[in-house]
């Protein structure tokens, strides 16, 4: 993805998260505390999208040769990196939702699910694990 497109996506994701805070009427003092969380979450979201594109045709395991005569198969590092980034993103969602009033969480929640529950459901659905 080129830099301009990435910057546009980052700006749009940042706006989306700020709009969430606006809709929840989060006070400015709390917004200041959340600024780093919002910035990181926007960046993480873009990186997660980019990683998914990279992983589209990637194998989960790859061969290795350490040069010392040891060969075998190992987990593809891109998947491990994705999982770590995903966990950090979900943690950011938890932090963000902790600052939202209960009414706002209920209003932006679908089917009465919390933000975290929605994320977990989306993750299951992306893996084809519908309940």
Number of domains: 1
Strand content: 5-15%
Global shape: elongated
Helical content class: 55-70%
Q: SSE order in H/E notation?
A: HHEEHHH
- What is the tally of helical segments? 5
Low-confidence stretches: none
Strands of the widest sheet, in order across it, are 1-2
Q: N-to-C terminal Cα separation, in Å?
A: 34 Å
Gyration radius, to the nearest Å?
A: 18 Å
Query: What is the arithmetic mean of pLDDT?
Result: 82
Largest sheet: 2 strands, antiparallel
Specify the structural class: mainly alpha
Q: How many beta-strand runs?
A: 2
Q: How would you characterize the overall build of this protein?
A:
- With 131 residues, the protein is mainly alpha-helical.
- It has one domain.
- 69% of the residues lie in helices and 8% in strands.
- It has five helices and two strands.
- Helix 1 packs across helix 2.
- The longest helix has 28 residues.
- The protein starts with a helix and ends in a 5-residue tail after the last helix.
- The relative contact order is 0.12.
């Amino acid at each position: 993805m080129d830099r301009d497109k990435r910057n546009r996506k980052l700006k749009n994701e940042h706006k989306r998260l700020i709009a969430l805070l606006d809709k929840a009427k989060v006070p400015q003092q709390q917004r200041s505390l959340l600024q780093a969380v919002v910035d990181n979450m926007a960046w993480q979201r873009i990186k997660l999208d980019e990683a998914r594109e990279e992983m589209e045709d990637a194998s989960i395991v790859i061969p290795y040769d350490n040069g010392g005569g040891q060969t075998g198969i190992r987990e593809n590092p891109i998947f491990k990196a994705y999982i770590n980034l995903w966990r950090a993103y979900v943690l950011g969602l938890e932090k963000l939702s902790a600052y939202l009033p209960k009414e706002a969480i209920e209003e932006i929640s679908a089917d009465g699910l919390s933000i975290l529950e929605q994320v977990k459901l989306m993750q299951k659905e992306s893996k084809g694990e519908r309940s």
